[in-house]
Amino acid sequence: xxxxxxxxxxxxxxxxxxxxxxxxxxxxxxxxxxxxxxxxxxxxxxxxxxxxxxxxxxxxxxxxxxxxxxxxxxxxxxxxxxxxxxxxxxxxxxxxxxxxxxxxxxxxxxxxxxxxxxxxxxxxxxxxxxxxxxxxxxxxxxxxxxxxxxxxxxxxxxxxxxxxxxxxxxxxxxxxxxxxxxxxxxxxxxxxxxxxxxxxxxxxxxxxxxxxxxxxxxxxxxxxxxxxxxxxxxxxxxxxxxxxxxxxxxxxxxxxxxxxxxxxxxxxxxxxxxxxxxxxxxxxxxxxxxxxxxxxxxxxxxxxxxxxxxxxxxxxxxxxxxxxxxxxxxxxxxxxxxxxxxxxxxxxxxxxxxxxxxxxxxxxxxxxxxxxxxxxxxxxxxxxxxxxxxxxxxxxxxxxxxxxxxxxxxxxxxxxxxxxxxxxxxxxxxxxxxxxxxxxxxxxxxxxxxxxxxxxxxxxxxxxxxxxxxxxxxx
Length: 475
Fold this sequence. Notes:
Layout: H1 2-24, H2 42-50, H3 54-65, E1 69-73, E2 76-80, H4 84-92, E3 98-99, H5 104-110, H6 120-134, H7 136-139, H8 143-157, E4 163-165, H9 166-183, H10 189-202, H11 216-243, H12 253-259, H13 271-302, H14 304-319, H15 328-332, H16 335-347, E5 353-358, E6 362-364, E7 367-369, E8 374-378, H17 380-383, H18 424-441, E9 442-446, E10 452-454, E11 458-460, E12 465-470, H19 471-474
Parallel strand pairs: 2-8
Antiparallel strand pairs: 1-2, 3-5, 4-12, 5-8, 6-7, 9-12, 10-11
Helix pairs in contact: 2-3, 5-11, 8-9, 8-18, 9-13, 10-11, 11-12, 11-13, 13-14, 13-16, 13-18
């Protein structure tokens, strides 16, 4: 018996020593619980987002586990990190360390060859192709087209109305701008079908990826399949037009991507890459801009001083013009208005947070993030930090009068570093042109309370119904 006890004891010594070293090692897996398989804490986070208590939900995790913790979201083990250092870690890390792979539910909907999923040379190649269309020098020529779309929208859906619901109309507007500028897809049955399937697709983007019939995610997958089929048809048509020289390479986003060549070896984008990146641009361009415009109108209705200052700036621009249509130079004059937009995105960012994937075992703040785990970050954790933005709940556009005073990686509505959203300038033009015509042509009053939920993007009560009066009747 003594011999057996000694044998077992000697066998256990290395294991006990290894365990002790791991307990002392700074590279330990963060504290927390992974919860139930597949579901984990996904339902808890989604419930908190819909109740607009997600920041509180995350703050409770911080109080319980500290600044770094583990959990399970959307079927994968995840590490939650926050703060400027965490944002820098997310946005500025080397592609060999962190991949910006999205959660499985989003990847299956948008495809695995979009810019958010790629790394290294593939990411640089595809980003360069997208920037041919989305860089400021190229977008200058599209200001007039965007101007026309917005004025047509207001004429069709605002003029002659006494009450409207802002969010669905803003989504209608941004979708039409996408179809006109990115695809040159004119109004008609195919455009209507694309909108219907697209709306079905985005409803399930942040959901538990369960593919049972009649689940939200299953319906979203069906919508995504049809959207991809329509885009494939458009790609084939644009390719034929380019071959026949009836379309130009910079006519729209699809022709631009079909015509792009890598500077190094002349490599073209594959059809799969074009399809998946068009899907991504559609989602990014549709949701973020429509949400920002909706909450911007909500803010202006609640803050008469800010509203009056924005109106004064826009009326001065309108009076200084010889033609009705806005130009690139006019947008450059909208400095105060853009500060108001940035403050709106600080308080109510359209994207709550995002995910990355650890490509190898990595360390952050003394903790180990195992290879293959997700990394989750949330914008409000810095946007509403009173150490970064004093009185964070107060709306103050002058915070951004001197942007250099904002600590790096603290204000991140468009991301940061080499992975900053390539559609930043497109969104800026869209928002500024829209707000110019809305504030100079209408005044409005809210018809619902100021509450909102996240699903996963912020949605105001009843979609923000407002009473509108043409300004010529007010004056």
